[in-house]
Each structure stands twice: as structure tokens, then as C-alpha cells.
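By convention, the C-alpha cell line describes the chain's fold. To illustrate:
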Amino acid sequence: MTLTHAEPAPSGKPPAGHPHVGVTSTFVGMPKFPDAARIELANTTQRRNLAHATGIIRDKRASVVGELDNWEELRLAAEAIKNRTLRHLDDYLVQFEENATKAGAVVHWARDAEEANRIVVDLVRETGSDEVVKVKSMATQEIELNEALQAAGIDAWETDLAELIVQLGDDWPSHILVPAIHRNRSEVREIFLRRMKDVGRPAPEDLTDDPRRLAEAARLHLREKFLRAKVGISGANFAVADTGSLVVVESEGNGRMCLTLPETLISVVGIEKVLPSWADLEVFLQVLPRSSTGERENPYTSIWTGVTPGDGPQNAHIILLDNNRTNVLADEVGRAALRCIRCSACLNVCPVYERAGGHAYGSVYPGPIGAILTPQLRGTSSKVDQSLPYASSLCGACFDVCPVRIDIPELLVHLRTRVVDEHRGGRPTAEAAAFKAMAWMFGSHRRLEAAQKAATTSNRFFGRRKTIGAIPGPLAGWSSARDIPVPPAESFRDWWKRERGEQEPRS
């Protein structure tokens, strides 16, 4: 989507009818991963940016994880908590709803993206506002909330610095934690100079690519939006069932501005984000920052429970989002993906992601976790979703760093099997048919003996040849790289009978 160059209104707010800044990221028609990756590999600037950034994050993570002598115990605890929660997810969700409602929040349930977007649009319209400020949220990107708000004539302003860069640059996020990781400082400067003036306070004309100057320009640009907005929209890193609380962790403080200044706060939360208790939250507040930003704790951890009169938003709405998560939950193997806490550690160690970047995955969830989560949430009807389980070398580095111990390679193989099964349409592959025939033959000694007899009889047709050579038909590719021996003139059974005079070899 392109920006228009309308003059901003005196308040700094775009005039009525000004299109929302963002990307129409429906991902419809995206090429399969190998084709998209081939295009991204040609972007040498992006490859340098990714290698530099992921390398720094990897080193920081390794340093702070190495400080703990119980890191593996924390991983095991996080895995166990998530597994227990998923086994009893229905009970914990009901408990969360009851406690959040008691605290003054209004809880909504959304079956899919369409229903969630409709609820948000209706809630914003009820306030009479035509704009919202947003905390960085993967769930709202997943349901394409910005596009739904745009279609309803509501401007949605991303306030996370990296998300702001992506939004102003008409770009796609390419990383879960650092959406603009593929951009360097000079590119960010050009985006700010070119785009900020179209949607609010312009960037200073003498703006340089110094990080402090860039952050200052973003802060001044966003400040007027924070002070003006009546509605804030967030996701949540965690939802605590025994208190009805929501938790957002971040590094900039912009999220806290969105969570505290507006009169109305709407939070879109995936149903897998629930945790049973505060004691469980303690474990995740240790493993998440170390795995994501390489910090001992997040600079900003915001926790709120319902509504507090005279303090913060006076209207709190929570939308519990399914969007095919219950289908993932029904898969005993695939449900492990729902343990994900969106730390992005798997992206930072993945050799495939580091070279191909996030855009090649055709989803808001890139990297190894996206390769297993996206096909389960969206299905495998499209070429890109069918190809994602193959976007990996299965090296296992992703499992080694995952704070909730998701065995991503195991899930990739599981999903590859599903893709193959769907392509067959219920018909067995030639390989499966061959193995089934072999099982039938080995199931009876008489059938096995008959097959051996037929094989030894065929020996006479090959004369003195030692190998058969290439075989036509389905086995042509297999036989072209192997020397297939001619069947022996005599089977082991026949030799035994001839030499020992016994009917069967003794075990």
C-alpha cells in the first residue's frame, strides 16, 4: 500500500479519508519458500544486516544464559507449566475470564480473525474515535487487524520503534522480536524523512543516521499520537488465570504509554497465552528476556488487572482469540508449537533464517517457529504453507535454545508427513505400496519361498552379468545411482537343504 502526500491537519493528524499507513499483508499468492528465499538471498544488504544483528543477539543471549547454573531446570519447568496448561486449557480459560470480569474487564471470545476484527472495530466505533495507538502484537498482525481497521476508516498507529519503521516503510515485519531487523540505520533515516510528514509530525530536516537522533525523531512523532489517542490496542505476553491479569514485556516504554494513557484499552490475546498462576509467571519472566533480547529482565514489564477507578484506562476489553488454535491443540504432536512464547531465539540461531530473512516465509511468524506454527494455523492448502515444513536443515539448533523446549525438528518432520499425505489424496505412494507388498510377502514363509524361487529362476536370463543396470519406470532414478546385483542362482534356503539335508536352518 502506498502513502499519499496529503497535507497534515493542523493538529498533526492526517485529514479525514487519509489512508492508513501499513502493508496489505494478506500473503495471498505468496510463492513457496524456495522461490521466495532465492529472491531474498540476492539482497546482499539484507543478508549483512541479518548476520550482524542476529550475531549480536546470539552472543548476548549466550552470555546471560551462561550466568545461570539452573538454566536447563528453568527450561524444563517452563515446558512442564505449558504442557500442564494446554492439557487443561479450557479450565484455565474459564478461570481467567471469571477473574478478569470480577476485576472490571469485559471478556470477548473470538473463533477466528474475522470475528476478532469485527469485535475490535465495533468497540472502537462505540468510543467515537477514528484512530488507535497499538502496542507491538503478533496476534493483531496474525489476524490483520490494521487492515480491518483501515477498511473501517480507523487509523492504527504502531508505536514500537521497529514496527513504526516497518509501517512507515510500507514493509513487512521480518522478525518476531525486531520486525525491522533487515533495515540498517541509513535506510531508517530515509524512511523517516520521506514518510513521517505524511502522517504526523515530520522528521527534522537535518536528521542523521545516529541512533539517538533516530530515536528522538520517533519519540517526537509518536508523542502527539499518545497524547491524543482515546483507544489503545495491545496483545499480551501472558494471561494469569488466578487473577485475570495481563502481562506485556517490552524494551522501550512505548507499550506502557499505550496501556496507560487511553481511556479504552482493547487486548487481543491468543488462548495459548494463559498461565495458571503468579508462581508460573515467575519462571517465564526469567527465561523470556534472556532468550529474546539477551537481558536479565525486561526494561518494562506492565501488568494490569481489569479496571482501577481513576487510574489508567476505564474501559478494558479482552478478546480471547482461537483462530485455529484448538485445531492445533487436538494434534498430540503439533500442539507443542502452542508452548511458544514468541522469544525469537530460534530465529537468531537458524542458518536458514539468517540467510533468507523473514519475508521468504510468507507469514507474520517467520523462522523455525513460523515453519511449524503457520501451517497449523493457516492449513496447508497454499504453496507457501506446504513448503514451510521443508524450510529447515533439521540441524536442531532451534531446540537447543528454545526456552520451552519445543522440538521443532520433530514437528517439521511431522508436518512434512502431513503435507505428503495430503498430496497423495489417500492413495499410497509407490514406496508405501512396495513396502506393503513386502510385508505381505514376509508374512508367510510359503510366499517368501515362492518369491525367492522366482528370483533365482530369473538368474538364467542375465548370463554372466553381475549387475542388472538401470531399471525403467519408477525405480529409474534410484537404480541410476546404484549397482543392483543380479539375483543369485541359488537361495540360502536351497543351499541349506542341499548341504545339510535339512528342511529349515536351525535358529
About this structure: The first strand starts at residue 106 and ends at 110. Residues 1-26 have pLDDT under 50 and may be disordered. Residues 71-159+230-343 form a domain with the Rossmann fold fold (CATH 3.40.50.10420). The radius of gyration is 29 Å.
